[in-house]
Amino acid sequence: MSGKDWHNAGGSVGLFHAVGITPEASSLEAALQGLEPEFTNIVHPEDILSTKRELTNAANEHVDLVLVGCPHASYTEMQSILELMNGKIVKEGTLFWLQTGQAEKDLARRSGLLKALEDLGIFIMQDSCINNFPMKNQGFKTIVTNSGKMAHYAPGTTEGNVEL
User: Is residue 122 part of a domain?
Assistant: First the structure.
């Protein structure tokens, strides 16, 4: 298994801790809880750019599907999407799907965020993943996502091209 493979967060509970980012890993000492690391892998900005280039195969085409929330979008991410949309409605002929969990969707409903996103034409999918549905032959030629996981799987599951 290569060093990159260790960072996959797949499975029924996709999870890894990033020092200084996830709450359980506020510091290296907190993350390791007195143990020695099994390995260390430092990710440089060029590593991220290289991976993005590897996972992007879309030309400048019409966008058929925008997909956010793989893994599920947090409430904060949903707020950010609303801000980024800046009142713009999803363009006709383009679908915008946001995947999230029930708790986040319920919070968004109570706060009015859910309605605001739906009013812009964003479809909110709860407790599921687009990869669980038959996506071939749906006509998705170009998919835009913020998810490395989706960028990896989409060409095979949708036969579409991806912009990460």
Answer: yes
Report pLDDT for 104.
93
On whether both 33 and 112 belong to a single domain, the answer is: no
Q: From 74, 77, 69, select the one nearest 97 (Cα to Cα).
A: 69
pLDDT digits (tens, 9 = 90+) for 38-83: 877 788 999 989 988 888 888 767 899 999 988 888 999 999 999 9
Sign (positive/negative) of CA torsion 50, 54, 59, 62? negative
- Give this prediction's pTM: 0.76
Q: How many residues does the chain have?
A: 164
**Are the CB atoms for 71 and 14 separated by under 8 Å?**
yes
Note whether residue 146 is domain-resident: yes
Retrieve residue 67's tokens.
Answer: 């997909």
Alpha helix stretches (DSSP H) within 89-147:
102-111, 113-119
Cα separation of 79 and 15, whole Å? 23
Same domain, 120 and 157: yes
Which is nearest to 130 in space by CA: 91, 159, 157, 108? 157
